[in-house]
Amino acid sequence: MYMFNECSAASCSNLTLSDFDETGEISEHGDFCFEHIPQQASIQAKMYEYIKTHDKIVALNASGIAFENIDLTNKRFYGCNFQRCTFTNIQSKGLRCRMCMFDFSMFSDCTLLESNVQFSSFAGCTFSHTLFTGSDMVQNNFNGVQAFQSSFDDSDLYNSRFIRAHLVDTSLRNCNIKKTNFIECRQENVSLKMSNTREAIFEKEGSEIFQGINTLGDMQL
Length: 221
Prior knowledge:
By secondary structure, this protein is an alpha/beta fold. It is built from two helices and 15 strands. It has helices spanning 40-53, 208-218; strands at residues 19-20, 26-27, 56-58, 66-68, 76-78, 86-88, 91-93, 96-98, 106-108, 111-113, 116-118, 126-128, 146-148, 166-168, 186-188. A seven-stranded parallel β-sheet has the order 4-6-9-12-13-14-15, with no helix packed on it. The chain has a four-stranded parallel β-sheet with strand order 3-5-8-11, with no helix packed on it. It has a two-stranded antiparallel ribbon with strand order 1-2. The protein is elongated, with a radius of gyration of 19 Å.
């Protein structure tokens, strides 16, 4: 996983960004978060170069960085931190992520086709004109996301969570949504056509946990 060192700036509890050594590899000696780092443009350029020149990226902390017009095709990210990042006009195919954090990030005009993202968190993210079509998005956290004119069509969303999400003009057609949790999810012009909606959780009363509690309550002691 990425470093959990706090920023050296006074009264700042943000985590430090990854830094890079003389060979261009990730260093464990970062000092500041993106907000307080003295040369933001320089560290952003180093992040771009590192991602461009590596297919497998492990334990990168890029929290707060803005990514635009960067190709993530077939890139593999493991245990990375992309919280509060901005992704604009990202066109890629075959992106792979495991245990990565994208909380409160913004995705705009992104095409991330056939992605394979598991055990990762997108809590509080905003998706605008973003396509995850044909992706494996298994056991991910989409709680509180806002999605506008976006698509998860033909994707596997098994056991993921969209609790209190707000989906507008967004499509989840022909998706596997078995055990996917949509409790208190607001939907406006959302299509779930050909998805296995009977396997999903839309109300608390329909959840396996609730049913288990009821079963215990009906038992005669």
